[in-house]
Amino acid sequence: MVEPKYVAPTGTSDILSPEVERRNCIVDKARRLLGLYCYQEMIVPTFEHTELFVRGIGEATDIVSKEMYTFGDQKGSSFALRPEATSGIVRAFIEHSLYTKSMPQKYFCIGPMFRKEKPQAGRYREFYQIDVELLGAEQPSADAEVIALLMHIFQDLGLKNLTLKLNSMGCRICRAPYREELVGYLRKVEKGLCRNCRERIKKNPLRVFDCKVEGCRHLLREAPELISVLCAQCQEHFEEVKKYLGVMGPDYELDPKVVRGLDYYTRSVFEVVSPSLGAQNVIGAGGRYDYLVEDCGGPPIAGLGFAIGIDRTSLAMKRSGLKGYEDKSLDYSIWPA
After folding, report:
1. Residues in binding site for L-histidine
2. Is residue 213 part of a domain?
3. Exposure of 30 by Cβ count < 10 A (0-12 exposed, 13-18 middle, 19+ buried)?
4. What is the pLDDT of residues 276-317, one digit of tens each?
5. Which domain holds residue 118?
């Protein structure tokens, strides 16, 4: 066997059969359901102006400060390979004046994303997502509809024993005093936190809940919870979301530590966890982002959505014994006489 002269870059992989067929199954079933829910497919560039992600995702997030692949051109412009698709869809929504059409509007995008992360099972530097966005819907019933759609896709794929985790991030009004309360607590336990979490205290304290270090997670169990200090409007919105979910059917688990790694989220946030994947067990996640369109230069239009990790979903199916495809291997061959 010849030693290969070139191999795939670290954090990427060649996707071969039958993995290709399983991924195609995920995409095909998602497309079918999204069509039934009246979502339109949108194709956006795999790279954007860096400033779009800085403004949308947040300068102090790990994604922007540590994980983006950026590059320049001869004119001095800075670009970044997309680490997520929501910002690009929102940019297109504004650029093409789609906000002048009747609301709400529904879009989805399928393709690769890129982040400079430490590669491990279920975490790659090039990874694939199905990104789903609902724009122009403020009512709590929209949150429940989007969450139910996410669970419907996983149900259609045959995945079972999934856990839906739900939380509220509040709004800018109720988040400001909570931030001060959280920083006060973190200062008290700062010596026991990892270096990254100590940096987050100054830049973006809510991101400490993303930490996977066991020592940090232990200390954060006693941290104040945003869900307990929501303003009246956010509390009412969250109660309505839970009420609608009770009617629509997806069982959920309240988890005050679900905050997501993107600064644009407000109010409802959620994750879907597979028990078969170990540490990197979130196969789908999302939330509401009521300020993002305006922050990116558009009118004040609310939005919400989710992303499905195709790589992790495929891995969860494989470990659950779900092929997602028909076995096309031949049991015999015919040769001419």
Report:
1. 84-86, 115, 129, 133, 260, 264-265
2. no
3. buried
4. 887 779 999 999 999 999 999 999 999 999 999 999 999 999
5. 19-171+231-319
